[in-house]
Write a structure and sequence with these properties.
Chains A, B, C, D: One of its GO terms (biological process) is NADPH regeneration. Chains A, B, C, D: GO terms for molecular function: nucleotide binding; oxidoreductase activity. Four copies of one chain form a homotetramer. Chain A is of the alpha/beta class. Chain A folds into two domains: 112 residues, Rossmann fold; 182 residues, Dihydrodipicolinate Reductase, domain 2, CATH 3.30.360.10. Chain A is built from 13 helices and 15 strands. In chain A, strands 12-11-7-10-9-8-15 form a seven-stranded mixed β-sheet. In chain A, strand 2, helix 2 and strand 3 form a beta-alpha-beta unit. In chain A, helix 4 runs parallel beside helix 5 and helix 9 crosses helix 13. The N and C termini of chain A lie far apart (41 Å). The mean pLDDT of chain A is 97. Chains in contact: A-B, A-C, A-D, B-C, B-D, C-D.
């Protein structure tokens, strides 16, 4: 029975609390949030106490912490949790600064505590199945990976301003997925992007439409495209070509119903956004973390995976601004 | 906050207990089962007490009961629950005897208690969406309904022997669905069937493959086909033709992944069986019952819906044996 | 090089003329039509002569005739062609009268000439592939066949009046397909039908919406549904269930293009009607006839196949009118 | 009635000859081929004469020529045909040298003869429909185009050696398609590629797997991926994202049949290669050329379209070799 504390009671914290409540081998002991009402509401629904973040990190009756607070707090909480010997689940991105993530890696390594980075998409049943089939040789050696990721609509400009930009906020998931699927590190990256959805996003220095080509040392290729807008719902697709075939994961639609009429055949929109599409992924992710800690296995994705994705996001931002490819091996 | 008692802690009772646990407006007070260990295990997981069925039916701290016990116990439990003024959710079939269902209807009507029959498929998100679109006129007046229902594999012969036969055990769901979708009562039924999957099923007096044609007074048609076997998973599909188009609900596959190789394009099997396919349906069904009781609305499907489906199942069995159509209006 | 004559230069005659023109092992020598202009126009496009039907049937420079004239002329032309020793391709239905078809069978058998009945759908690449896979054991022994056939819109009432009714004019194709796929003769048939599309069709004594259940001696089942209307195009689908799986053939859509927008995912209508959907089937059918005659093989579907489908159509009409099943073995 | 001559009686010449034979407004007068037997065989099947290429180009009874000979002969034939005042249909690529294509443009412009470049894919019914819907505003302004093109298997090494390389031989079609769909010229290109399918292709200086990112002045993006191998058949797909939705064209499979068994749901391979997949495209292309010449309209794609695609192919080859983006505006 893993005794857990939760830092951050916002949308994602609530998702994790619900998962923990449904498990037999974990218990949510306490929750914390900068907004006391948020902590109290989640505590009431979860049968947990409210405590301060500091108390949770220092508590002797808590074995593991879930960090779902704003990104700029992760660094301090990771340091405190590691020093207190707690297992750590931390939402992505670990930090906006690659140097600070490296510092976190060092403290986590020194403390020897389990650490998992919250790249939830690895746990989506479709993508996980696709990865398993690659591992079992269903398509032989991989030649080209193609990832499509499009949000249903842009976030508020205020969010974009503090998001680190599309590559660090959105495509970072796809960088991790590309590494997860390819099984060979990327050595070179070229990114393009523009503000085609909303000029205000461009005026804020960001892009809302982007594409990236990545290559490995052996010449394997990954194409990623992102957009902040998709009229038909959250577009989350992957296609992997190998020597003996292709694997692809399609979107999950709202229902399986099809209407046929004088205009043709009509199916539903894709599930609206990440809370719907990745509901099972979030559940499987937290379950995997808890199972790893309980059994002594090393959780993945690791803090190193979080670091690599951030390095790629920084490189993409640089490439988009300079118009030149970036070498990923000189980090 | 609806205080609930659960009779029957088997597979379906566990499904309902889990749903109730996740709701804010209901609480599972007590559970009962003929096997004490089953009751204790579910009670422990649900934070409920174990009591005898009689105690639950007589309890003053319980407002509603969920009856998930063997079919031959439903009659007595419905009578006791109705007389005790409790809201009743009863699994299908209510009883194998149409006369005894009528007796239950009478006692429920006399007591004035809410009653819901457990035809879970009405609450499947796909079928519910299909029905809503019919109601909104998406295809105009209905002309023909086609229902396909195939189990992944036959149950044990011991189950078949006490099941009442394919029409009462399996196709009863499709009879309810046909009525739910058509919106006009059926007046005539013709059934055929054979034991093509397993001769032993035929020797037991039952069939494992069957088809039925139903017609309404205005000439509208429903075709149903059932089989106890489908190599590719639980096959649950509906197609409805109307004056301006068709609506169809396809199976839910295990994942959205597709493999393309030298043999073509390959997708996953359909979800294995009813616990997987109708997971959301069971949740939505119990939620609807609780919401109806809490708000004072009349729950549907009603006990009368349970009666009509049983009448149709009896008629199908008779038609299959005699080889002649059966008039449904002379019941 | 098979030297051919064509009787009937209407829509279907033109289809056959075009096929013959594209083949290396056949030549269209002459065409005939009751309307001289129709014959002349087709002759000009085909590099053929115009002759009278009688001259074609008597010609010594013609080996095979294609009969695509109105149904009531088939009987005389078949007799004349058989007696003249010509190979015969005759459009369905061979005749509206089962007795007269039997008379044609006798004269054809006596003459020993090759004869093929124009059930084009057996040559649709999708249905032919489905049949081949059944024959190769892809799904084991067949248990249930389901055929859906819906025209895009009803023909003129004047056509319906002389069509012999839906079962003889439209479902006759599905009766042949059911026999083609099942591989075991049907022994019993139950039909229902109504005029739901257009009351005037009902006033003319016909139906526009119908369903039939067929069973074989061993209990295998076939379900057929027909409608004179389908808003989304010509609906031609087949589904076959066997002991180890299912085979199904879907409609051919106008293009493979899909539009995704705020309303969901949208594909094209099904191909409009039989000239589009069965373009390849008509070509493959005539090619098969010519190849059979050239190689001395026996063409199928045979005149006996034409007879059986007509017997089933008569039985369906009777069953629909009486409301009772019809025994097919007492013909 | 357009009187036509055909230069080149190989695979593609035969395709064009068959199309012309089926048309009412054109006649194939003569054919030529370096291999006399090839010319004679096609002439026999087409009802045409055999002549030398020079005689066809000089003939007064021929209005238009179809050039389907090896690429290195195009330049001379185009010059001769233009000077003889003939309408010209020329297969792609027009020439391997951009300068020589410019010279052809000049002579064609000076002669004022109609000219069409054989980019057949513009006439594929799926892609043409997709383009028409873009033009009608189905998805608003385009933001991103994604083109996937994969051959079923690599050609012989001897072919690759004289092909000009993957970008000039294969991706040139996709460059034309990108321009056709985007409606705005591209200004920048970045290409990557490797020999992942066969190392011998790499040793020959070519690649067999490649990806390209193109951008327009306004920031719109096109992603292209190519491979010389696809186990599941010829993979020809397009996806276009716009401000209000997405349009995509899927592959055409061999049949619509689906097999469901214990391993899941299985559909056929994609149509094998370009003769199958683009059968309608080749027919529509030649029909459009003939109609344009007959009506006096200007055929498209033009010789300028052929030039632009070749410029992009050259740029892609350079970018792949240097690892740097190439500016397309400085040509």
């Amino acid at each position: 029975m893993l005794k857990m504390g939760l830092l951050g009671c916002g949308r994602i914290g609530q998702v994790h609390a619900r998962t923990i409540r449904g498990l037999d081998n974990a218990r949510l002991v306490a929750v914390a949030d900068a907004v006391p009402e948020a902590a109290q509401a989640l505590a009431a629904r979860s049968g947990a106490e409210t405590r301060s973040a500091e108390d949770i990190l220092a508590a002797t009756d808590i074995d593991a912490v879930v960090i779902g607070t704003p990104t700029d707090t992760h660094f301090d909480y990771i340091h405190a949790a590691a020093r207190a010997g707690k297992a750590i689940f931390c939402e992505k991105p670990i930090d906006m600064s690659v140097d600070r993530i490296r510092a976190c890696m060092d403290v986590v390594a020194a403390a020897g505590v389990p650490f998992m980075t919250g790249f939830n998409r690895r746990f989506d049943p479709n993508f996980a199945s696709l990865r398993n089939r690659i591992a079992k040789g269903a398509i032989g050696a991989i030649e080209l990976v193609q990832i499509t990721s499009r949000d249903p609509a842009p976030p508020p400009l205020s969010y974009i301003a503090r998001s680190g930009g599309l590559f660090r906020d959105m495509m970072i998931h796809d960088f991790d997925m590309a590494r997860f699927l390819m099984g060979e590190e990327f050595v070179r990256l070229h990114a393009v992007g523009a503000a085609l959805v909303d000029p205000a996003i461009g005026e804020a220095g960001d892009v809302d439409t982007a594409a990236v080509i990545l290559t490995t040392a052996s010449g394997r290729i990954c194409q990623i495209s992102n957009s902040r807008r998709a009229a038909y719902g959250y577009d989350q697709r992957i296609e992997v070509h190998g020597e003996s075939g292709m694997l692809r994961a399609e979107n999950q639609l709202e229902t399986t119903v099809e209407l046929a009429n004088g205009d043709g055949f009509h199916r539903d929109r894709a599930q609206h956004f990440f809370l719907e599409r990745y509901e099972a992924a979030f559940r499987n992710e937290m379950t995997a973390f808890i199972d790893a800690v309980e059994t002594g296995a090393t959780p993945t994705p690791s803090i190193g995976d979080g670091l690599m994705a951030q390095i790629m996001a920084d490189a993409a931002d640089l490439s988009r601004q300079t118009g030149q490819p970036v070498d990923l091996t000189t980090g």
